[in-house]
Specification:
By secondary structure, the chain is mainly α. It has three helices and two strands; from the N terminus they run βααβα. A two-stranded antiparallel sheet has the order 1-2. The longest helix is centred in the middle third of the chain and has 17 residues. The two termini are 15 Å apart.
């Protein structure tokens, strides 16, 4: 199944889930994307993979 909009969180999603400001949400997305780049993955500016975000923030691992 190809990735779509529902496979990525944007800043509004992160703000709502973590109850934080927009600037802090952007900072978190930027840091997580830097981690992914360091692992050799491509990233999308201002969006973060739902799976990676959930794993890093909530400890959830999707099989």
């Amino acid at each position: 199944m190809p990735y779509g909009e529902e496979d990525f969180y944007n800043v509004e999603n992160v703000m709502t889930m973590l109850m934080i400001s927009k600037s802090h949400a952007y900072k978190i997305i930027r840091e997580l994307n830097q981690d992914l780049k360091a692992q050799g993955y491509m990233t999308i500016t201002r969006k973060i993979s739902c799976q990676y975000f959930d794993e890093k923030c909530y400890g959830l691992q999707v099989a």
